[in-house]
Amino acid sequence: MTHLSPTWDPAARGVVELPSGRLVRGRALSSSLPEGTVPEMGVYLLGSPPPAVPWESRWIRWPDFRLPADRDAAREVLREAWERAADERVEVACAGGRGRTGTALACLAVLDGVPAEEEAVVWVRERYHPRAVETPWQRRFVRRFA
Fold first, then answer.
1. Which of 73, 78, 100, 129 is the most buried (most CB within 10 A)?
2. Residue ranges of the domains in the chain?
3. 76-115 burial by CB neighbour count: b if 16+ within 10 A, else e?
4. What class is the 15-145 domain?
5. Alpha-carbon torsion 108, 112, 118, 124, what sign?
6. What separation, in Å, do the N-terminal and C-terminal C-alpha atoms of the chain show?
7. b or e along 52-70 (b: 16 or more beta carbons within 10 Å of the residue's beta carbon)?
8. Tens digit of pLDDT for each residue in 31-68?
9. Interval 125-138 mean pLDDT
């Protein structure tokens, strides 16, 4: 499926194409910013506030290997990210780029129609990183996200 509008390069590292064609980039904040186009919106999943960025961003307080501190707020931010990914460059990132980022990407896949019961986790592991969604409680969060 082709993406809805010019957003990310679908072949770029970390870019995941959702079933609707929306493109979202996942990445590790511990790595340098990829060259090229910058995000229009970033969603940062960290236990403490992220470093300042020159684009619009949202912080979800989400300690490593855990779940969001405020799950309702996390749902709202992820829904906004999913909506904006239709025609904007949205990235989702945590320190290592796998557990929390993979969990958030799986939740975006659920919003996009991928069934939450285990399928969304498998889906994101196949398309983003084989070790995305690292903990049992992160998998449960995805299952209950819908």
1. 100
2. 15-145
3. ebbeebbebbbebbbbbbbbbbbbbbbbbbbbbbbbbebe
4. alpha beta
5. negative
6. 24
7. eeeeebbebbbeeeebbee
8. 999 988 999 999 999 999 999 999 999 999 999 989 99
9. 96
